[in-house]
Amino acid sequence: MKNVPPSLAIVSGLIVGILFADLATPQMLSLGALYVLAVWAIAQTESPEAVVGVAGVATALTLATLFFPHPPAGAESGPLLGARLVSVIVIWSGAIYFVQDLKQRRKAAKQHELHERHVVEEQRHELAVLEEKLEAEHAKRRQGDAARLRLVDILERTPEMIFIARADHRLVYLNSAGRELLGLAADADIAALTIEDCFPSVSAKMLEDQVVAGATRDGSWQGDFRVARSEGEDVPVSLVMLAHKKSSGDVEYFAGVARDITHQHQVELAMRESEARMLAIFEVAIDCILTIDEQGKILEFNRASEVVFRVNRREVIGQEMAELFFPPESRERHRANLHRYQTSGGGSMLGRRLELTMHRSDGEEFIAQIAIQPVSLKGQPVFSVFLQDITKRKEQELLLAQQTKELARSNTELAQFAYVASHDLQEPLRAVHSHCQILQRKLEDKLDDSTRTCLNFAVDGAERMQRLINDMLSYSRVGTRGKPFE
């Protein structure tokens, strides 16, 4: 049940009191009770129309009591009429006051309702905004979870060892590559491991003093280090250590990335050995080997070059080769060839063996056989120069040519002599041979065995001599293109 308005309760109490005081009869008591019930009904409905209706009924009943045939004993008409008028005035004053109070209460209730509606709308708006924020936060969280899952997947697929440790150096994460590098099982518990457990004990102090201290001081540390496998084997790694700090400046956690560089170390060792072998070959080569850059400046200068050019390598490194060792008339040609290679990739002196006149540091000229070959060194074009001092060889070739010419002249003269000699000896030899044969025929029966043998020897000797002269004549014909001797 709703609360009775205070104004209505006061008015009702005054009217009931007046009626009971002036008309203490059963009829009036019944009317008063009826009036009280009406007041309570109005309190339930809170209707201004009902208030006016009840006030009218109460007025009519109050005035009607003036005409009751049995007024109270000793009552006078004048005071009775005044009491009734006062009752009517009190009734309508209370009704008016109640109606105004009811309107004010309704207005206040309406304002309260409007306020409540406004509050509800604001709350609904705030709730909608909050729901949007929550949805955005949930979406962001889902995206963050998806990003974290992708990041974890990337970390697990990364071939480098990745670990995260708290400020007290205890590991909280170690990826698959790290577990494999350390020789740990995929499901091994790492909660009890520290950064120091990943490194050999001999380097623990260096780890604390250099790596951790450097990362804490500068935010990061990078360098080559060694990781200890569970079976005790040390593996060389390239380590990057990061220190993530709080707003207060204290380290919150460490993160590290370690890459196994065993193969790189092996390659570097092989490269160093290869470079050592090449350097040994370079230094002991009997030919001059130089390396020049795009501007023709000397980068390398082996021992044979020092001997040929009669200069120490320290004096020529960084100097232009053309200026030092080429004659003035051929320097520009050499520079033009280097420039042409840079612009078009070709040059008349590149990739060919040429014989050039060069000069030593003391100005002495010599003949050199030179070949210039472009190569790439660390992505930059350089030129390898291979050079031989062929001055002695050229002198020997000249001497040989002279001797060959002299020998050819001598052979020609010898051939001419053989031709003449063979021609001149043919006739006497033929006469000797013929006469010996005549003696054999005429004196065959008269000669003893000894004389016959001597005569046979003379004929055979003449025939052999004839063959030798014919052979010498054939040889002379090769050089003189002579005709057959008749």
**What is the multimeric organization of the chains shown?**
single chain
Numbering strands along the chain, what is their spatial order in the largest sheet? 2-1-5-4-3
* Integer average pLDDT: 77
Largest sheet: 5 strands, antiparallel
Strand-residue fraction? Answer: 15-25%
Structural class: alpha+beta
Which geometry do the CA atoms define? rod-shaped
**Count of DSSP-assigned helices:** 13
Q: What's the total number of strands?
A: 10
Distance between the termini: 174 Å
Describe it for me?
The chain is of the alpha+beta class and 486 residues long. It has 13 helices and ten strands. A five-stranded antiparallel β-sheet has the order 2-1-5-4-3. Helix 3 packs antiparallel against helix 4 (77-157). It has helices at residues 6-22, 26-45, 48-64, 77-157, 176-182, 204-218, 262-284, 303-309, 313-316, 321-325, 328-344, 391-442, 449-480, and strands at 161-166, 171-174, 220-228, 234-245, 251-260, 288-292, 298-301, 353-359, 365-377, 380-389.
